[in-house]
Amino acid sequence: MIKLMSVNFDDCIPNWRTQLETIEYNVLVVVREGKVRYELNGEEMIAEKDDVLFIQQSTRRSGTNWNGIPHQKHTILFTMDRHEPTGIPFLDEGKCLKFNLSHIQYAYHRCERLYEEMRGDKSYRTMICLGIMQELIGMLARELEKTELAPSKRKYADTIKSYLLEHYRDPIEIESLAKLIHRSPNYATALFKEVHGHSPIRYMHQLRVLEACSLLLHSDMTIAHIAQYLGYYDTSYFYRIFKKYTGLSPSDYVLQGERPDISKLFT
User: Fold this and answer.
1) Distance from C-alpha of 263 to C-alpha of 106, rounded to nearest angstrom
2) pTM recorded for the entire structure
3) Element of type H or E holding 192
4) What confidence tens digit (pLDDT) does each residue in 83-104 have?
5) Cβ atoms 88, 137 nearer than 8 A
6) At what angle do helices 151-167 and 174-181 cross, to 10 degrees?
7) Which of 155, 187, 220, 221 has the CA that lies 20 to 30 A from 101?
8) Bridge partners of 122?
9) Region of 65 on the Ramachandran plot (φ > 0 left; ψ -120 to 50 alpha; else beta)
10) Which residues of 219-229 are buried (b: 16+ CB within 10 A; e: fewer)?
């Protein structure tokens, strides 16, 4: 039985550190920006942007900013009944592990939701928080079952991903992405999908719609202006794309009383 203890969000804390101690709980660490240095049972482990760590209960652990530079991360503390197997190999084996998730942006949003729910007082909060936690653990377990990728494949896919993160508002052509890794367009598309679970163009739309969600809620820009800003010069096409990924029109998204669940962006 998994029992949540606390969920934290460390947002670029100067001089962040944890003392060396034997912890009586398990920790999931999801790094969003920068790097963090841990010492785990006498061995150094560096986690950086997009990494997920599992630190097992009874680990002798300390942590600090890497090279004194602040970082940004989510941490989830939880306990389990040691005498009852969970059926999740990485939990039952009890090893400290570092992961890379194909759907890291979705994991970020689940951590954000978990953080918000843990600090709220709405009904069924405990059940919802446990459900989110179980989903995150299931995602990690599924990722570990995948066939190990050749380092060159992940490097090529990450090169394309980094370009898309920087240029998602610009017109994107598969041919241009393929040139980044000196491979054919078909190879580039298949490789990206193998590593990240979807095509480069789908990922571009995900990034655009995610940005649109933020602008709709936190800016005075009109829907037409947002569409153009994000590279959709046909507003009706933007409407179709937005609804495809969120299940709502831009107008309905704004009218929702609470921030809508945008998990469809990453499935």
Assistant:
1) 7
2) 0.59
3) helix 185-196
4) 778 888 888 887 888 887 777 8
5) yes
6) 130
7) 187
8) none
9) beta
10) eeeebeebbbe
- pLDDT tens per residue, range 183-216: 999 999 999 988 888 899 999 999 999 999 989 9
pLDDT of residue 8: 94
CB atoms under 10 Å from CB of 29, counted, come to 22
Would you say residue 133 has pLDDT above 80? yes
264 close to 245: Cβ distance less than 8 angstroms? yes
Residue 230 CA, chain-centre distance (Å), reads 22
Question: Which residues touch 172 (CB under 8 Å, ≥6 apart)?
Answer: 164, 200, 201, 204
Q: What phi, psi does 227 have (nearest 5°)?
A: -55, -50
Which two structure tokens, joined as six digits, stand for 247? Answer: 């299940």
At 165, list the tokens: 């993160």
Instruction: Please give, one letter per residue, the 3-state secondary structure of 92-151.
Output: HHCCCEEEECCCHHHHHHHHHHHHHHHCCCCCCHHHHHHHHHHHHHHHHHHHHHCCCCCH
